[in-house]
Amino acid sequence: MLKKRKLLVVVIEAGLVTRLARDVMAKGAKGYTVTSANGLGPRNQRAGDLEGGNAKLETVVPEATAEALLELLKENYFPHYACSAWVSDVEILRDDRY
Fold this sequence. Notes:
Blueprint: E1 3-13, H1 17-26, E2 33-37, E3 54-61, H2 63-76, E4 84-92
Antiparallel strand pairs: 1-3, 1-4, 2-3
């Protein structure tokens, strides 16, 4: 009855969340949740033109989609911006939504 999926969580500069959300949907996610985030990380820096703190984007996706999104982050976000990401295993009931 339960289906296995991956929960991808990305903490990113708030000014980039619209771009990231667009990329997430383009890679096949059916949706996402964005919340405000704050904290301290190893870089403790932000590009001067991006203000507004951090945001946390969460999406539940199939494993292949999670892998594609991690590759996108590795190539297009991690080298240039203060962001981090992690993946967790989750089980869902409503397969049609994810």
